Amino acid sequence: MTIQEVMLRIEIPEEVRKNIGKYSLPEKEFYEWKHLFENDFEIFLNKWRETQKHFQWVLWFYLRLACEVHEKYKEKDISEEIFHDTFSDITIWCKECYRKYKVYGLEEVEWVAKSIRMELFRLGRLQFEPLILDQKLAQKYHLLTGEKVLNVHIPAGERLDYCECQKSFESAKKFFSNEDVIFICDSWLLSPELREILPETSNIIRFQKMYHIVEVHYDFPQAEERVFGEIRENKDAYPEENSLQRGLKQYLLTGKKVGIGRGVIRKQK
């Protein structure tokens, strides 16, 4: 599969498809970067930052790697649908880069690397990252060190339809061949404060109720970033374009905060 074929498959904007070739590298240099990506990701990141490689270049680089990952998908008999859904994350973040900087590229270099390394797969509405809990994570989720879990991530761009989420959980059990898997999640969508803002019938609250919330932390105003697209000191400046924005804005204006919930869906006894 070529870069152009990958871009068409994951619906990259036409402007990118027309101009992506200008960011290519000689083969020798490409493989030097690839070696760093695969063998010392921290050095890869530092070199990318030091050489001031722009967002467009890393988009091209990841698309080139995605071509190779496609072959690995075929070898493992992973469907074209899962490839499309997983790597459409590149398109989501490419458009987000344009929204923020008016440039089609990739800023989320570390995050998208998970898909390139086949550490994360999108199965329907949700993304899943298999983990073996170290001591620190186990403590955070009140689980045992060494426990195998699936870390759940919620990609942007679509409604959090409750039924579609249920289908994703079932697909994950089959894909990872583990009917007794434990799901964990760390997200603003699991913040109990949302129950003061949203009705019980909302998809977000229904999704939240699937989890046992073990902890809420306030390290970062993730809800504001995701709902409004940015974080502002002046909460009164936030837009009110939908019911969630209106409700969250009014909640924040009372001086309250929305945290990030850590939740667990345990295997059935």
From TrEMBL:
One of the Pfam families matching this protein, by short name: GNAT_C
Superkingdom per UniProt: Bacteria
InterPro entries named in the record: GNAT_C, NAT_N
GNAT-like C-terminal domain residues: 120-265
Domain N-acyltransferase N-terminal span(s) in chain numbering: 1-118
Name of the protein described by the UniProt record: GNAT-like C-terminal domain-containing protein
Organism: Dorea formicigenerans
